Structure of Dihydropteridine reductase:
Amino acid sequence: MQIYWTKINKIIEETPEVKTYLLDCPEDFTWEEGAHTHLALEGFNAGEKPNRSLVRHMSISTLPHENSIGITTRIKEQCSEYKTILRTLEVGSDVALFKTHSNVPLKREDKNVYLLSSGVGLATFRPLVLDYLNRADNVNQIHSLNIDSSKDFLFKDVFESAPDKKFTSQFVDYREGYYEEVKNLAADKDGLFYVVGSDEFLAQNIEVLFEQGIHPKQIMLDKHEQTLSKFLSVDASV
């Protein structure tokens, strides 16, 4: 396993609780839209065994041409040891990256794509939207639906509807309205549905999509292959 050590080059306060850490790109470090990585803090590999409390699975919120690796995360006032340390890091601090992979690249199958997310789940989808806006080949259109009760909606510069490019973006701040919209979107029986959020959020969305007749193969999750069946089997829907 290759570990890439790199430095924070910028910290952006997206909202009072959400920060984006922009990291220098190490030589030979590559990724594609929808990628996640493991972000480790200094000391995680200092002992005989890795300290897992200093490692988190994070989505990369940028594309390679932006020349920085973006990590966007919510840090609440009461938070874990990992987030507490992360909050104290400054420009120039060292972090490590490893096991980078994309489970949810943008599928170009001449279909409509629906991006369903909760809160900072938008960090996973930002690169997909940018990739589509740069090159719309073999994608009919994209619709993004995000729920965030804080009302501090993220990446408004990217998630702004562009009808001329067949991209629409919708933010809602309450659960009932969100799931009604999911049902409406699921009227497209041929669409591709990407879902990002907590495991509970995934399960609830999948249940609604299944009820509307959407097939498991039309649902994309940021999960490893061996975990997908747990969420996408009909028996698994709650």
